[in-house]
Amino acid sequence: MNNLLDPALLFFILGVTAGALRSNLEIPQPIAKFLSLYLLMALGLKGGFALSSSGFSATVAVSLLAALTMAALVPMLGYAFLRRHVGRFDAAAIAASYGSVSAVTFVTAMQSLESQGLAPGGHMAAAMVVMESPAVIFAVLVANSLRQRQAATAHVLPGTGAASLAGWGGGHASTPIGKILHESFTDGAQLLLLGAMAIGYFSGDAGKAVMQPFAGDLFKGMLAFFLLDMGLLVARHFGSARQSSPVLLAYAVLAPLVHASLALLLAALVGMPAGDAALLMVLSASASYIVVPAVLRNAIPEANPSLYFGLSLGVTFPLNLMVGIPLYTWAARTVL
Predict the structure, then answer these.
(1) What's the helix, strand, coil split of the chain in %, to 5?
(2) What is the pLDDT of residues 225-277, one digit of tens each?
(3) Which residue from 14, 67, 230, 288 has the least number of CB within 10 angstroms?
(4) Exposure pattern of 11-20 as b/e (b: 16+ CB <10 Å)?
(5) CATH code for the domain of 66
(6) What per-residue confidence (pLDDT) applies to 190?
(7) Using CA of residue 310, residue 313, residue 316, residue 319, what is the dihedral sign?
(8) What's the pLDDT tens digit per position in 161-171?
């Protein structure tokens, strides 16, 4: 209940309400972009300062390994289920979105955990970066395999010797994995987060004192402003989410709970602290609606963007923000 009364979350609900009422309230795009970059920069600095104080340890290594494990497991499970209900290109794209992570959900969860005295380690910001790309790479490998299979089953036109590709999407060339890796690791948001984390780590306590007014005091207000814009964006994509099949809607609601449960089990097995475990659950349950859709639009053009974007933003994101974060926090506290 306390999470629902958090001012930042209430501004998100205000944005959803304003969008549903078709209000002319809007945040100019340049300001929304600035707010996104600010949150990533502040988050990176916070993580770097915390990591500077704690140092690298076995706990850090275990947490990063657990994050990498979940990043590989979630898209494989998602594709195995979804390919029975939608086209395989769409299944790969949706699995990539749900196998990757939402930075906004992560930032909101960090703020919520800190306010409850359950501050996670600074290395969890690096865990978020680790979990960004494996799902995209998996989806691109699947898409390339599907295209090659379509090319192999193409029939030869009589008397011409020319191959005619059979199947939707067969005319698209395979996407080089190197290109996807380059796009993933040189993405501006990723570089800013990692760079700010490195700056926080090397500047230590002195840097923390200097940057406190910027990265600490302003953070909550900036997050509230950004979530207001996210609420408006979610309201605009309710329509595309509602048009999805009941199976996909059920997946958007239930899959995050399954992924979070698997993350909690893994966290318990490796002995992660409750704060780190809660964030691993949040990351595993979240879905990307910014970085991954931008990559998939070019890497898997055969997939329908309204499916993977509409489900992640219109259904999973608001559910995680309003219900998921407090649920995952409670579960981590109870089990660990």
Answers:
(1) 75, 0, 25
(2) 988 988 888 888 777 667 778 999 999 999 999 999 999 999 999 999 999 99
(3) 14
(4) bbbbbbebbe
(5) 1.20.1530.20
(6) 67
(7) negative
(8) 444 433 334 44
CA distance 300 to 161: 29
Could you tell me if 300 and 135 are in contact, meaning their C-beta atoms sit under 8 angstroms apart?
A: no
CB 85 within 8 A of CB 255: no
| Average model confidence (pLDDT) across the chain | 84
Q: Does the residue 238 lie in any domain?
A: yes
Angle separating helix axes 219-236 and 29-54, nearest 10 degrees? 130
Q: How many residues does the chain have?
A: 336
Amino acid (one-letter) located at 246 = P
Residue 162 within any structural domain of the chain:
no
Where are the strands (E) in the chain, listed by range? 155-156, 163-164
Where helices occur in 134-237 by DSSP H, the ranges are 134-152, 177-185, 188-211, 219-236
CA angle 327, 330, 331 (to 5 degrees): 85
Any domain includes 142: yes
> What is the C-alpha to C-alpha distance for residues 238 and 234, in angstroms, rounded to an integer?
6
Asked whether the CA dihedral 191, 38, 329, 123 is positive or negative, the reply is: positive
CA separation, residue 176 to residues 131, 141, 144, 171, 183 (Å): 20, 9, 9, 15, 11
Give the model's confidence band at 187: pLDDT under 50 very low, under 70 low, under 90 confident, else very high: low
Residue 158 lies in a domain: no
Residue 131, phi then psi, degrees to nearest 5: -85, 0
Coil, strand, or helix at residue 155? Answer: strand
Single pTM value for the model:
0.82
Contacts of 94 (CB under 8 A, 6+ apart): 78, 82, 86, 248, 251, 303, 307, 308, 311
Counted domains in the chain: 1
Range of the domain at 43: 28-150+168-335
Distances 231 to 97, 193, 275 between C-alpha atoms, Å: 19, 23, 26
